[in-house]
Amino acid sequence: MVLAAGSVGAVMIASEYAGGQIRTTFAAVPARRAVAAAKVVVLAAVMTAVGALASGDAFWLSQAILADRHAGASIADPGALRAVVASALLVPVCALAGLGIGALVRHTAPAIVTTTAVLLLLPLAFDTRHRWTAAVNHAMPVPGWERLVQIIPFPHYDGWVATIPTSWTVFTAWSLTATLATLIALHHRDP
């Protein structure tokens, strides 16, 4: 889902640059910030709906399967609602990250590859055993999501563990940074 959402965000803007359609868009709406803001709002709204649908369905379906084995959980159980909401919000966060990267890169294939590398591969380069590498790891959306969906803590883990508020802050910071990158890139760069 991370790869798909990030790719949708990257393609949403980079494909317009690749095909030259961005000139038509800016001719129709010369206010570049309005165009960027509209893209951000539409992408965030659609991907939030997709994320909510996928996350909710996955939870209810898995609980229906587990209930037959008397291992199901309720949405009221500690951490369950947080996990469902975090899973739903990961989708628009990744899509907005892809949009920001696509606005900066402006070419479809490199934007998708860069988005994939940033969202999925970069966190693997930083372990959580050392404080500075853990800080970088915890500043990425996927490790933040992993912490938010973690219900049972690891009792003898010797690495640095992110806090729940830090993980929510990471989601917010990535969304805002990607939005700002999109607004700045579309406002200051020629098509």
Description:
This protein is mainly alpha-helical and 191 residues long. The protein is 75% helix and 0% strand. It is built from eight helices and no strands. It has helices at residues 2-19, 21-28, 32-67, 80-105, 108-121, 131-138, 141-149, 164-188. It is globular, with a radius of gyration of 18 Å.
SSE arrangement:
Blueprint: H1 2-19, H2 21-28, H3 32-67, H4 80-105, H5 108-121, H6 131-138, H7 141-149, H8 164-188
Helix pairs in contact: 1-4, 1-5, 3-4, 3-8, 4-5, 4-7, 4-8, 7-8
Give a quick set of tags describing it.
single chain, 75% helix, 0% strand, 191 residues, mainly alpha, globular
Shape: globular
What separation lies between the terminal Cα atoms? 30 Å
Indicate the radius of gyration in whole angstroms. Answer: 18 Å
The overall strand count is 0
Order of helices and strands: HHHHHHHH
Taking pLDDT < 50 over at least 5 consecutive residues as the criterion, the unreliable ranges are none
H/I helix tally: 8
Q: Helix proportion of residues, in percent? A: over 70%
Q: What would the average pLDDT be, to the nearest integer?
A: 90
- Supply the helix-strand structural class: mainly alpha
Oligomer state of the chains in this structure: single chain
Q: How much of the sequence is in beta strands? A: under 5%
Main β sheet profile: none
